[in-house]
Amino acid sequence: MKNILLLCLFIVVSNAFVNAQELKSPDGNLTLTFQLNKEGVPTYSLNYKKKEVIKESKLGFVLKSDIMLNQGFQIAATKFQSENSTWKPVLGEQKEIQNQYNELKADLVQEKSKRKVSIYFRLFNDGLGFRYEFPVQDNLRHFVIQEETTEFNLTGDHKLFWIPGDYDTNEYSYTTSKISEMQSLVYNATHVPLAAQATIKNLATQTPLMMKTNEGLYINIHEAALKNYPAMCLNVDDKTYSMSSHLVPDAVGNKGYIQTGSFTPWRTIVVSDDARKILTSKMILNLNEPCDFEDTSWIKPVKYIGVWWEYFTGGGSTWAYSDNQDVVIGKTDFSQLKPNKTHGANTKHVKEYIDFAATNGFDAVLVEGWNEGWEDNTAFKKERIYSFTKAYPDFDVKDLSDYAAKKNVKIIMHHETTSSTSEYERQLNDALNFMVDNKYNAVKTGYVGPIIPRGEHHDGQQMVNHYTYVAKEAAKHKIMVDSHEAVRPTGLHRTYPNWFAQESARGTEFESMEGIHPDHTTILPFTRLMGGPMDYTPGIFQGDLSVYGSKKNKLSTTLVKQLALYVTMYSPLQMAADLPENYLRFNDAFQFIKDVALDWDETYILEAEPGDYITIARKTKGKQEWFVGGITDENSRTATIDFSFLPAGKSYTAIIYEDGKTADYKTNPQSYNIRKITVNSKTKLKQKLASSGGVAISVK
Hints:
Helix content: 10-25%
Strand content: 25-35%
Largest sheet: 10 strands, antiparallel
CATH class of the domain at 21-287: Mainly Beta
CATH topology of the domain at 21-287: Beta-galactosidase, Chain A, domain 5
CATH architecture of the domain at 21-287: Distorted Sandwich
């Protein structure tokens, strides 16, 4: 009888243990609870310093057709392990990154179907990552995902920094609101002119999603290591404050085509009670696979100028060589067309840019509009739009390649696909070989407009695979990739460090179109940049486009804020985007752009509040020099810059680029002052920032 009682007690304790697993972060601040509910549904919850972050939330999938892979499970096994190591990124915000976490792996099996799923939870000091594994098994091999049913049940009506859920673009302006206010704001948020849109019909938002609770917790939801899987948006229930995964479908409505023996991307939740720690988190990078390139010495940071902004100013420069709208790639003899005399990518003009780059110490010149096809760059209705190996008659590839080499400047290739990606893949090998033959080592790719194959989306599984395919093929040719209009990044620049920058958000070009809000760049580091570096293309000094004639747009920042963005918006690829003549007009301010580094030993987040302000200091890789950037939204403020990041006992000269006393982004954006002071590790500087203004400091 005694043995039977002991056996019963053992069974009860064992079942309680199996159905409720707890995992703590290395510092003990975060606690994950994983369990199965009464229906065998896997659930998780997350606490930070004993405050609830995510309430009990369900996990799982529905497979096509209506196969429920989210209930009726038993726990077959659990495994705990820990990791504490460091690694060095090829390019980055710091020279060394700590990868420390505690992991729980739960192997689940459905009692009736015997189908298996494993869930990995990794708890870092800065947040939680979890993903699903579909193990190789006898009765499940290939399947189609109908929906992923991952939930993120929030604790209240949080403040959100959000853009609408969309399958094709992330170039929306950010809206700041409570969850309960989203429905009343979503119409205006989505009804804006963009090149491609496929908004989600129910209330939804994109990731990375930044939130702040009434209790002062900062929460960021995104994903890591997005490969062979569709991107995740979030359905929003504005009554219960719950969110759930919404995967981007393909042309026939399916979400993903999966073979067992594979993993999903990681779902990520970064949490802190200090906004600065959201920006210092490297969890998303840590959840990506290490780079396996044997040689990465060819992957370098790039500071560049380009034949680019002149196309947006309204001054008359064009991508197209002629005005003939009836060109056919492979048939039209472009040498027989009448030139329009406004084509920007001509040999003489590009040489002027090469000269300017060489004189001012820039690495490269981007040239858009060099190749055949820009006359009729019609999205979606035409498949073969461009040649990626044939230049216009007035662009001498060999001459320019040789000229640039003599000046120690690279030319950045431009491959705008206008989203005819099937045609781009057909030409890709020839295009990359053409680049190698002509000494190009970096390419800017573009995906403007709706996707071909028709019905596919920018953020669906097929296009996710396309972007990684391009990055891998480029790496075989030792070519670096900067992708525009691509799916938002998820830390894959760790795995493929040659994919060193992306746009994938509303960038500077919109200053010439519908505009950018003053708070935009105070939100982006908390949202879009959580996944990876952005080619934001700052550095516009002449912000009033009416001086060029046809455009009436005005920049949303002061001139000094444009300087500060080189520090606050991390990227190893940075453009001085304005016209060269504007840098000559403000040559003393231009000096900061020439000086600022692109690759860093350390990064220090001095001040931060999403949507309001950011102040960041960074130490140049391998040098005793530092750069500071501080920005604010439409509200002027006084930044406190604490120089305690400097080595103790030494003094340094700081050159401060500051807003002038009368500076204001609307009325006097070009007012600035430059001064020198001596600083040391005990210096605390009170610095006034104008409305949508900034401060930029170089310390040597």
